[in-house]
């Protein structure tokens, strides 16, 4: 029996990867008053060595796990940029909390790093 074109697609998936608790977990966020909250939760490919965590991995090294998104409430549409970004981080962390608690998570978002260093150490420590 000849392989079907659909079967070939599933043998080498190019879209979503499964989450692995032993792999480093990343998330990249985007927040705007028009578009709402959006994120990409991902791993990097196993053969890619991501050592400089201040630089986002190249798109060719990313294995996306999920793309959560939502619209803003009328109140949040009046948030300033930093408030929008922090509310997006809070929302994403709530959505992927089970992954973060079971594994290891990293953010390169400067305002949230500052919050972790000052006021909310007990909440942000892993």
UniProtKB/TrEMBL annotation:
GO terms for molecular function: endonuclease activity; hydrolase activity; RNA-directed DNA polymerase activity. Residues 62-102 form the Reverse transcriptase RNase H-like domain. Keywords: Endonuclease, Hydrolase, Nuclease, Nucleotidyltransferase, RNA-directed DNA polymerase, Transferase. It comes from the Eukaryota. This is Reverse transcriptase RNase H-like domain-containing protein. The lineage of its organism: Eukaryota, Fungi, Dikarya, Ascomycota, Pezizomycotina.
């Amino acid at each position: 029996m000849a392989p079907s074109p659909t079967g070939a697609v599933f043998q080498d998936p190019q879209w979503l990867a499964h989450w692995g608790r032993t792999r480093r977990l990343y998330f990249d966020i985007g927040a705007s008053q028009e578009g709402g909250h959006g994120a990409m939760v991902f791993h990097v490919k196993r053969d890619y060595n991501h050592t400089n965590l201040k630089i986002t991995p190249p798109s060719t090294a990313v294995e996306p796990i999920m793309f959560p998104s939502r619209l803003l409430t009328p109140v949040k549409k009046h948030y300033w940029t930093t408030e929008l970004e922090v509310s997006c981080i809070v929302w994403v962390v709530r959505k992927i909390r089970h992954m973060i608690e079971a594994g290891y998570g990293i953010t390169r978002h400067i305002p949230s790093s500052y919050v972790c260093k000052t006021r909310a150490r007990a909440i942000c420590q892993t």
